[in-house]
Queue: 3 jobs
Job 1
Amino acid sequence: MKIFSFFSKKLPVDTQQIEHAITHLEQLTSAELRVVIERKAKTTSAIERANQLFNELKMNQTEQRNAVLIYLSFKPHYVAVVGDIGIHQKVGDEFWQNVYDAMKKQCQRGHFTQAICNGIKEVETQLAMHYPILPNDIDELSNEVIIK
């Protein structure tokens, strides 16, 4: 397992495994998914920070408005899942809450990589149904996990 080292302290996440899950999702869907992990949150709200990052990363500018951001902070312990308007209109609040709830439980057990990968898998199922891969699909956003 590759542990990402940041400021000489290790974050308990396997970025390669997460990036593999993102690549798998994007091979089945025309959507985009990003993962951002922060050592320390810059706001007092996970959803506020996730929305801020969503906009900073220009995820609201994908052609089909079907991008998804998974956000994790270690201090304080935050998890958030944000979908753009195109996918949100198709899945609704209950779907996002269910993904969040499942991820939160795994994070509370210290299974951060698994929480993120399982969250990606849940999102992948819906994205593949509503936004299947297109023959001329273009990868609009990097699959690299962002560590802040």
Job 2
Amino acid sequence: MVDLRAERERAGLTQARLAELAGIAPSNLSAYESGRRPASAAMIARIRRAMVRPSERLRDKRDEVVQLIARNGGTNPRVFGSVARGTDTPASDLDLLVTVSPDAAWTFVSTARELSELLGVHVDVLSDGGLREKHRGVLDEAVPL
């Protein structure tokens, strides 16, 4: 028997947050967890996909991420934030730092959206050319993909 509640708790998510990530009503998730409503195999798979950490998604699609960044004019992709620290949860976003040449800036604009669609998580992409001294921590924390 599937214990969605235990899986959700291991992932460190509230019912409300998991329902939001899975795109289902919180009342439906509650009913699935309590057994008041049976969940189909497809629904269980959907809920489980929503419990995957961004670091796992990035690991599984790393080559595609690097190719997409390069195709859009970016180089030297690095990750920072919770994924770089190894503290990401399924509710975390993915923070990337890249080098973008001025002539590729307009091409690069859609990169965050495309990466979010590819990975199924919110992705923030920063250009290292726009960082100031106050952002030193981003540079110090960033690790290559």
Job 3
Amino acid sequence: MSDRDRLTDILSLEKYLANGYNIATQEASNETLYQSQFQILSSVHQTQRDLFNLMQQKGWYQIEPVEEQKITDKANQFTQDQAQFPYA
């Protein structure tokens, strides 16, 4: 197993943990539990970001640049879709 494979596996695990802690934090039954889970969630997010940055630096996580017009088109599409949401 290469370093790239290990970091990809760890990054996937961190994403999975973030998803779980996000739900757990939202459903915390009291403030103390909420604060504890929120701190863990923040730590997991920071670790995930650090891994992402490291992999990008090494060229193992490539992000394809997008044209400005595509961003504008997607933002406009979201605005139109948002108008159809049943809540404000």
